[in-house]
Specification:
mainly alpha, about 240 residues, two-stranded antiparallel ribbon, single chain
Length: about 240
């Protein structure tokens, strides 16, 4: 039986890594273009669903790819597991944005335009002339798409890091299959918590990194997420101590 103490330097490092992981998930949510119900009616930019669904969805896919890499590569290094988590999450969010774009363009028939910038920071294309009256933008412009992929990568890395840390802890105490299950379930919990935190700051919709709301709400959400994740890191260790 491995002896685990909350005051052990390795344990404290693991708690900090879990806190960092949860914070990355929270930061990633702010990058993803969250449109909510207005986007579903093409009255705002982004994907037509909320922060919790997008963070959890992308995070769970990243968790699956990270877990697959960890279990199928002997002594898989952390960097490889994190890269797998990021890639899985990026593919999921990119697919969601692509599917939404097809619906916006060919189903609803709206041009993609941002309400937050006069020119797209990436393509330099003018936005305001394509704005439909009575909307806050529509579709998923290029800058929103790129921002969403970056956010997915951060969320995937955060989820993969939590999984990597937890399975390293629990794997010393229980069977590998049970450790993977416990680590996976706990990681899902961290995702949901850190998806709810920014939902209050975002307050409905956010276009991504170029949105003025991004820098206004991000610092407060990051601090909140770090301390919430820190508490969850302590809980994860207490679970290990109780095994």
């Amino acid at each position: 039986m491995v002896d685990i103490s909350l005051l052990d330097p390795t344990t404290l490092t693991n708690i900090l890594l879990i806190a960092l992981s949860g914070t990355l998930v929270c930061i990633g949510v702010h990058f993803v273009p969250v449109g909510g119900a207005p986007a579903a009616m093409a009255q705002a930019t982004g994907i037509g669903t909320g922060t919790v669904e997008l963070a959890a969805g992308s995070g769970l896919v990243g968790l699956i790819t990270a877990a697959y890499m960890y279990s199928n590569v002997e002594n898989a290094p952390m960097a490889l597991v994190l890269a797998a988590g990021a890639m899985g999450s990026m593919i999921m969010i990119a697919s969601a944005m692509l599917a939404a774009s097809l619906i916006y363009a060919y189903g609803v028939g709206v041009p993609f335009a941002s309400a937050q910038v006069k020119h797209d920071p990436i393509t330099r294309e003018r936005q305001d002339t394509y704005m439909s009256k009575g909307t806050q933008g529509q579709g998923i412009p290029t800058v929103c798409f790129v921002s969403g992929v970056i956010g997915a990568a951060l969320g995937g890395i955060g989820g993969a890091l939590i999984y990597f840390v937890l399975i390293g802890i629990y794997g010393q105490l229980i069977s590998s299959a049970s450790a993977a299950a416990v680590a996976g379930v706990f990681t899902m919990g961290v995702f949901y918590v850190n998806a709810v935190v920014p939902s209050y700051g975002v307050g409905g919709t956010i276009e991504g990194v170029h949105d003025p709301k991004f820098m206004r709400v991000l610092p407060k959400d990051v601090v909140t997420s770090f301390f919430v994740s820190l508490v969850m890191g302590v809980v994860a260790i207490l679970i290990a101590i109780g095994m």
